[in-house]
Amino acid sequence: MGIFNFKSNKKGAQETPVEMYLNHLDNIFQQEPVYIMGEKDENGLQGVSVMMYKDVPEQGFITGITYGLSLVEHPEWKLGRQELCISVESTDENWAKVIGFVAEKLRGDCPFLYEQTINFREQISKDSEMDAFFVFAPSTLDRDDYLNIDIGLDYKINIAGFYPIYSSEIEVIEKIGLKDFWHHPNFDNYAVNRERIKDQE
């Protein structure tokens, strides 16, 4: 992965879908992100890229948002195509990079729908033992900012939140449901070193 710049230098040129998407993010965050680009695959399809925002939503946090998951279709996407967002209280850039990696590996196969869990099966960052995720609405963005994003194509983009958890908690979510898991007193959607939530018989 390497650093790149999506921006066009041509004055008066019509915005590309990528530029429309980035302008949408610029209007939200009001800062220039670090761009991390996925490489093209053997068929020439652009890899999933990540816009990484440091100190968002607060000092000492990191937020990453993908572009590239939506370049392929999925039969379960009826109201737009998905991109992913992660926000955690950490300065480790791996948290932003991992969503690009997961999105690229699973695009076309995984719909990344709300309440879906994904077992990453290895430690994501050196500052946490978390090794899995669930998908839900992004807590960092307002509803108007993450739904029905117009990029000038025949589909809209929806940004889904990607939340790190411990893989042992997947079974807990399946048993009690995501709503009760989210409202559990030990759950903090930004914390990467919180106490594990265990099934209470």
Question: Main attributes?
Answer:
21% helix, 201 residues, 9 strands, alpha+beta, 23% strand, 9-stranded mixed beta sheet
Task: Kindly describe this structure.
By secondary structure, the chain is of the alpha+beta class. Helix content is 21%, strand content 23%. The protein is built from 5 helices and 9 strands; from the N terminus they run E-H-E-E-E-E-H-E-E-H-E-E-H-H. It has helices spanning 17-29, 94-106, 143-146, 169-176, 178-182, and strands spanning 2-3, 34-37, 49-54, 62-67, 81-88, 117-119, 132-136, 149-150, 156-165. Strands 1, 2, 3, 4, 5, 6, 7, 8 and 9 form a 9-stranded mixed sheet that branches. The chain is globular, with a radius of gyration of 17 Å. The relative contact order is 0.15. The model is unreliable at 1-6 (pLDDT under 50).
Coarse structural class? alpha+beta
Average of the residue pLDDT scores: 92
Helix content: 10-25%
Shape: globular
The sequence of SSEs as H and E is EHEEEEHEEHEEHH
Distance between the termini: 45 Å
How many DSSP H or I helices? 5
Residue fraction in strands = 15-25%
Q: Summarize the main sheet.
A: 9 strands, mixed
The total strand number stands at 9
Determine Rg (CA atoms, Å).
Answer: 17 Å
Uncertain segments are 1-6
Sum this structure up briefly.
This protein is α+β, with helices and mostly antiparallel strands and 201 residues long. The protein has helices spanning 17-29, 94-106, 143-146, 169-176, 178-182; strands at residues 2-3, 34-37, 49-54, 62-67, 81-88, 117-119, 132-136, 149-150, 156-165.
